[in-house]
Give the backbone structure.
Amino acid sequence: MRFKLNEVQQYVFREVLDQYKSLGRVDCAILKARQMGMTTLIQGLLFYFIVSNRYKNAMTIAHKDSSTQFIYNMQRIFY
């Protein structure tokens, strides 16, 4: 399935990619309005990174248990 990025996702994707290219890692905190697709974008990027690179890991921190469960279920769908 193809993942078509919206305008905001495209901007964040470029910023994340630039940081990875220049630093070899990505550290970011995204403060945003709801429903912009950031969780989907970041989880998709993390999933791709983890399955494409051996001995790598990633972490996502959420503010509520229900949000954590939602994000976990999203990762299960990607797999």
Q: What stands out?
A: The chain has three helices and no strands.
